[in-house]
Amino acid sequence: MSHPHPDLEFPKPLAKGGVRVVPLGGLGEIGRNMTVIEYDGKLLIVDCGVLFPDDHQPGVDLILPDFEYIADRMDDVVAIVLTHGHEDHIGGVPYLLRLAPDIPVVGSQLTLALVEAKLKEHKITPYTLGVSEGMREVFGDFDCEFIAVNHSIPDALAVFIRTPGGNLLHTGDFKMDQLPLDGRITDLRAFARAGEEGVDLFLTDSTNAVVPGFTAPERDISSAIDKVFRHAERRIIAACFSSHVHRVQQVLDAAEKAGRKVALVGRSMVRNMGIAADLGHLHVPDGVLVDVKALDRLPDDKVVLICTGSQGEPMAALARMAGRDHRIDVGEDDTIMLLSSPIPGNEGSVWRVINGLMRLGAHVVHSGGPDRVHVSGHASAGELLYVYNIVKPANVLPVHGEWRHLVANRDLAIATGVRPDHVPLAEDGVVIDLVDGRARVVGAVPCGYVYVDGSSVGEADEDLLKDRRILRDEGFISVVVAVDVTEGKVIAGPEITARGFAEGDEIFSSVRPKIEAALAEALAKGTTDTGQLQQVVRRAVGGWVGGKIRRRPMIIPVVVEA
Amino acid sequence: MSHPHPDLEFPKPLAKGGVRVVPLGGLGEIGRNMTVIEYDGKLLIVDCGVLFPDDHQPGVDLILPDFEYIADRMDDVVAIVLTHGHEDHIGGVPYLLRLAPDIPVVGSQLTLALVEAKLKEHKITPYTLGVSEGMREVFGDFDCEFIAVNHSIPDALAVFIRTPGGNLLHTGDFKMDQLPLDGRITDLRAFARAGEEGVDLFLTDSTNAVVPGFTAPERDISSAIDKVFRHAERRIIAACFSSHVHRVQQVLDAAEKAGRKVALVGRSMVRNMGIAADLGHLHVPDGVLVDVKALDRLPDDKVVLICTGSQGEPMAALARMAGRDHRIDVGEDDTIMLLSSPIPGNEGSVWRVINGLMRLGAHVVHSGGPDRVHVSGHASAGELLYVYNIVKPANVLPVHGEWRHLVANRDLAIATGVRPDHVPLAEDGVVIDLVDGRARVVGAVPCGYVYVDGSSVGEADEDLLKDRRILRDEGFISVVVAVDVTEGKVIAGPEITARGFAEGDEIFSSVRPKIEAALAEALAKGTTDTGQLQQVVRRAVGGWVGGKIRRRPMIIPVVVEA
Question: Of B170, B363, B378, B405, which residue is the catalytic one?
């Protein structure tokens, strides 16, 4: 079993005629998907998404792929291909285009509409090229054929990339719903043709490789949704991702059957469904959709709301309803449907919202209960086996997953007959060269987390996050002293300000004489440098606080010369 | 459907001949279980546990039940009965005994041994009374009979409390393993006898009321553990709770069969298993247990380690191994078993540890995979139905659970024929009076979170936690200025110190003139009060930081007179 060594070095130049693959995000995590494919000095980028921070990254807004490896080579980039319109595949595009606004952005109609809406907020007008399944577009030596795949957002594409150095097939995110709502199935015939032509490197979605069997069809949940509608006594509130057009479609259809009106709640929900309807992906039954204000005039049992927040996001509509901080006042016998599964790490927040809604008297239907109100957007192990057997790739690179997902996906590839040493496991930054029909790990490039943090991009670092964790867990003590260095005496202070302590302020009175004594001693010795005096204060406070209240807060000594 | 109203008032005095039940923890959360039972002015306490903080409670060490309601009435407490030795049932005892060290502490042999070890660390010697199943002890008007129940720790008890005002049966935590390792089953015959005598109020464990069917027997997982032992090529590392004696027993037995030696890792694991072995609950096969240092001299395929950290706790042995920060260097083809399920909210940490271990090349077996290496310690819905049908209680109070668990447990009670209006739902602090055979919500008493935070108990409050969250997410800016108020001028500063910002320090140079201008204006107007001058600084900085970098940090202005 191979795994990346921390001691991988920057790779040697790519052998002539070889293809280099550099994942800059999405391998070792679920999010910020981005793959750079290189041939003869030119670069093709597949996807450029964001990762959402967890509680180890306090205060961070977004995490981007690390562009360092390509930052000096933006002129070599021939295009960026977007497989679909989810944030973890398109969210980083505005930041990439800041480096080079003229890179062609390639994607399906819906994907481009979503990325253009996002770029507009960043005041960027991109050069776009709309494509659809079956089309073939050539970018330098990269001859790209687009293949329909089914996912939890419409209009998703896989891309078959022919290069003189070998053929790559990148699935993007996909599953193989055989009865999708829009009839647009994952095109296994195109996968088969690619396989017959020869797939030298197959990049496959690992998200559900740990899930045995097959992902159920989207339409299987309609009976559970209908059941909720039959039993609901008052309002129905459906929460799902604002990009899940087919899920919203199912709620609209159920509402029409039940004679209820639907309002969309939340900016992203309204915007995305508008785009989807304009492009024909969402079919709004006549007269079903109303403005949220119109609901006030309707009886509760004629009302449906569709909103975001099914992941327990604290600022989304649903969490605010659970906390009675939203104009929709959830009450006795309202019915809430959470039409998604918690993303790993979000479980606590989701349960918090569910408990809050139930405490208000609402009935809550969710994917952890007996009714199936959610199916995943990703292929399970059974589907992946089909795909490996249809494509029969020479080499496989599992993508899109935490390490455990990548390992499980590799094991599936091997089970179908792919040679174990032809399935490299890689994390972000690990470089794979495809040379003479064989994919190998050849090194690693710098690939850290790049944080969007307030107005800054890439300035936040691990030291900053450590500071924030200390501030959060241990608090800080600031000590201000004004000294007259010529006289060698303290003329004001020490003024002590502390935050983050449970102990009352009176506890700090006992450190004051210690600071005064330490300063007096230092000044008596002729220390006049404020930096050194600050060290004196820091040591006096640090020793006291560690002993007295067993904490290690941040200590901020400020010595001003006055 | 009833639910507690925020406007519940402090209850009127208990009617003569009635019994009052006041849950001070464990209702609306999993943790800090504590119930106060009152009759004729005297109080019996059942359990006194701790709750572990989540990421909304940064820096907090533990959360206690709120003792305010009983703090002035400690002389009325006749005893504290502990149902079993888990932290969420005994962890608060040291803090309760600080209020009144002479309250008799009643529990089974193992429970008392665990609570005494804990009290020793707090330098408290308790008055204890050891009891066992079948025994009956009278504390004033509370006539307590102890009943064996099966749980994920040995020697657990339910308690049947006869009072002149009615009979209460409290299950504690339990399940109904019909083939437990130690043969000690939940005594349904005793439950039946209590039911025939008459149970006026039945307090039942709600934890698994949302889980359909029956909790599998502990011994069912032995085949999965044996399978791991058969396939393991190198070391085996088993992680579980340090109180799960039977789980450790299974690993010891499997190790003996496989001819491996076992070392226990971690202070709590070593201590608890020592106690369990001394009391005859853990049977260590001859020669199997060795000191962890002895493992260095054994081949890897003869080695087993048992440690804590199966919940992904960052400081526990397993997480440190995953982060290569432990003397046990997990490597290629070691096998790790996580013998527990993630507690809701811990999933993210558990996955982080699993990914870390897999990245080191280890195989990881866990409850989310295909092999059953864990069973719960709590009765599922099917078992609860049996218990309701055997006891046939007049009234039910679901305890031990988040709101969603309490609701599910109530529904089960009603399904067996308990009258819906005889199953009050209550959260911590909600008061239930049992009067004339009927249990009703009659009010609420103060019942907040009591935080153990560094050296302080009960001093940390919501304002403090809000401060910490602001410090974590937004950082702080401290501005120090020395002024000569008689001259009306700034003589030193502004000295700006900021932490928690991604932006470089140079960004703060643009606020300096704004502060100077604001101060000059205030001083020119004759403002000499340092408090007012600090307000001037705060406003100048706040306006700038909100506009310039769109943050709302904590602002600490310090104006010293020099």
Answer: B378
CA-based end-to-end distance of chain A:
66
Cα A66 from Cα A53, distance rounded (Å): 15
**Burial (Cβ within 10 Å: 0-12, 13-18, ≥19) of residue A188:** middle
Q: Is A422 annotated as a binding residue?
A: no
Of B402, B453, B502, Cβ closest to residue A351? B402
| Cα–Cα distance, B272 to B293 (Å, whole number) | 20
CA distance B469 to chain A (A): 6
Helix H or strand E encompassing A534:
helix A530-548
Residues 109-138 on A with a CB inside 8 Å of B are none
Give residues 433 to 472 of A whose Cβ lies within 8 Å of B.
Answer: 451, 453-456, 459-460, 464, 467-469, 471-472
CB contact under 8 Å between B475 and A59, yes or no, is yes
pLDDT recorded at residue A6: 61
Q: Are residues B265 and B199 in the same domain?
A: no
Domain that holds residue B53: 20-213+377-457
Contact call for B502 and A355, based on CB within 8 A:
no
Model confidence pLDDT, tens digit, residues B378-390: 999 999 999 999 9
Domain for residue B469, yes or no? Answer: no
Answer yes or no: do B56 and B191 share one domain. Answer: yes
A188 touches chain B (CB under 8 A): no
Q: Which residue of B has its CA nearest to A547?
A: B455
Catalytic residue, candidates A155, A177, A205, A433: A205
Instruction: Please tell me the distance from the alpha carbon of residue A15 to that of residue A433, in angstroms, as a whole number.
Output: 8
- Measured between CA atoms, the residue of chain A closest to residue B474 is A59
Q: Is the pLDDT confidence value at B491 over 80?
A: no
Helices (H), B337-402: 347-359, 381-391
Question: Are A222 and A318 found together in one domain?
Answer: yes
For B26, the 3-state DSSP assignment is coil
CATH code at position A471: 3.10.20.580
**DSSP H or E run through A398:** strand A396-399
Residue B521 domain flag: yes
**Shared-domain flag, residues A135 and A230:** no
- Same domain for A345 and A492, yes or no, is no
Across chain A, mean pLDDT equals 91
Cα distance between residue A541 and residue A517, in whole Å: 12
Are B198 and B53 part of one and the same domain?
yes
Q: Residue B501 is encoded by which pair of tokens?
A: 């910002």
The residues near A409 (Cβ < 8 Å, ≥ 6 apart) are: A204, A206, A209, A384, A396, A398, A401
Pick out chain A residues at pLDDT < 70.
1-6, 562
Determine if the peptide bond prior to A65 is cis (ω within 30°): no
- The yes-or-no answer on residue B205 being catalytic is yes
- CA distance linking residue A499 with residue A275, whole number of Å: 47
Question: If you write DSSP's letter for every residue of B393-434 in order, what string do you get?
Answer: -S-EEEESB-HHHHHHHHHHHHHTT--GGG-----TTEEEEE
**Chain B contact present for A490, CB below 8 A:** no
Contacts of residue B369 in chain A, CB cutoff 8 Å?
210
Average pLDDT rounded to a whole number, residues B464-490: 81
pTM: 0.87
Work out how many CB contacts closer than 8 A connect A with B: 211
One domain for residues A268 and A194: no
Alpha-carbon distance B138 to B145, whole Å?
A: 9
Q: Indicate if the pLDDT at residue B488 is higher than 80.
A: no
Q: According to the model, what pLDDT value does residue A255 have?
A: 96
DSSP category for residue B292: G
Report the CATH number that the domain containing residue B335 is assigned in CATH. 3.40.50.10710
> Which residues in chain B touch residue A460, judged by CB atoms under 8 angstroms apart?
502
Which of the given ranges, A455-464, B228-237, B551-560, has the highest pLDDT on average? Answer: B228-237
